Amino acid sequence: MTAYAIARLRPAAPHPDIAEYMERIPATLEPFGGRFLVHVTRHEVKEGTWPGDVVVIAFPGITEARDWWDSPAYREIAPLRSRHIEGDIILIDGVPDGYDPAVTAAALRKELDAAADRPLGTPDASGYGGDVPFARGVAPEYPGERP
């Protein structure tokens, strides 16, 4: 399943280190099958605020994304960016082919129904008290998604 490195980078002044980073990053991606999908392109804010730039890099899977991030080649150039640009970067799995958000909604409804049947603060089967996984940022497993 495709995985992504997503960066939200704050505005920064131009610097020679940033140019060098941009010149060198493609060689760090190649061994891991990484490719840019979005790189500092114009974006349109529809809700909230979003100062700065967005970068999205696709990888064949989360293992390749992690291996790229931890690779000596990338770790060597990362300070060229991080010394001059603040930002948030995540590695994240995509959804499987055929993903249906209605399946996720059904799981959410099931959790909400189960939570409604328990007294407030009573732990659910996982030991978590009185809440649904979605409130904790935990989505249900998709059928056949992971081994």
From TrEMBL:
InterPro entries: Dimeric_a/b-barrel, DUF1330. Residues 2-95 form the DUF1330 domain. Residues 118-147 are annotated as: Disordered. Gene3D superfamilies: 3.30.70.100. Coiled coil: none annotated. PANTHER family: BLR0684 PROTEIN (PTHR41521:SF4), PTHR41521. This is DUF1330 domain-containing protein. It comes from Streptomyces cellulosae.
